[in-house]
């Protein structure tokens, strides 16, 4: 038997030579947060207490059995079980594209993208985290005419929107 095989088999043992239990150490797993890959979202995994910001390609760390919560500034985007891929649908708790909880999360993440082009990934900057201090309710439906333009939601960017009704004279 090769040394690698012996080492692998012995790693399965959870008792030492005297019969005492040896704690099993669960190694962190890498997951990816995607709508497109989403970089710059804060995350907190529990119970492992691993935290940070998603890196390039949406990479984050967690351990099997963790629940990972994602946020941007004071806005909690949602939570999901630690997995290799976490999508906006996982954070919304639904994959129904017509569900407002999913739509609002998708619009939110895409609106905060640094270059307004989610096809090359979504990058959320520190300035956006600093600007978003209040919670949002992703369960609320908003009339289409009151949805913000993507450029309105990032610091230093402004936009004007056309009124859906004729101007008063």
Backbone structural class: alpha/beta
Poorly predicted regions: 1-13, 145-152, 158-169
- The fraction of residues in strands falls at 15-25%
SSE order, as H and E? HEEEEEEEEHHEH
What is the helix fraction of residues, given as a range? 10-25%
Question: Strands of the largest sheet, in order across it?
Answer: 4-3-6-7
Rounded radius of gyration (Å)? 21 Å
Q: Tell me the distance between the termini.
A: 90 Å
Mean pLDDT: 80
Number of helices: 4
Q: Note the overall shape.
A: elongated
What is the strand tally?
9
Query: What is the total number of structural domains?
Result: 1
Question: Strand count, sense and closure of the main sheet?
Answer: 4 strands, antiparallel
Summarize this entry quickly.
It is built from four helices and nine strands.
Would you kindly provide a written description of the structure presented here, covering whatever features stand out?
It is built from four helices and nine strands. The chain has 169 residues and is α/β, with parallel strands linked by helices. The chain has one domain (29-153). The protein has a four-stranded antiparallel sheet with strand order 4-3-6-7. A three-stranded mixed sheet has the order 5-1-8. The longest helix has 12 residues, at 100-111.
């Amino acid at each position: 038997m090769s040394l690698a095989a012996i080492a692998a088999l012995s790693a399965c043992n959870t008792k030492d030579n005297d019969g005492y239990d040896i704690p099993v150490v669960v190694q962190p797993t890498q997951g990816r947060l995607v709508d497109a890959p989403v970089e710059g979202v804060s995350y907190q995994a529990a119970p492992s207490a691993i935290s940070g910001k998603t890196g390039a390609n949406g990479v984050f760390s967690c351990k099997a059995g963790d629940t990972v919560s994602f946020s941007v500034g004071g806005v909690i985007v949602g939570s999901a079980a630690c997995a290799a891929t976490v999508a906006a649908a996982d954070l919304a708790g639904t994959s129904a594209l017509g569900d407002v909880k999913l739509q609002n999360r998708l619009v939110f993440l895409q609106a905060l993208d640094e270059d307004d082009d989610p096809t090359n990934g979504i990058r959320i900057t520190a300035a956006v985290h600093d600007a978003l201090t209040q919670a949002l309710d992703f369960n609320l439906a908003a009339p289409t005419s009151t949805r913000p333009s993507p450029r309105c939601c990032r610091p230093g960017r402004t936009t004007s929107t056309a009124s859906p009704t004729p101007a008063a004279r």
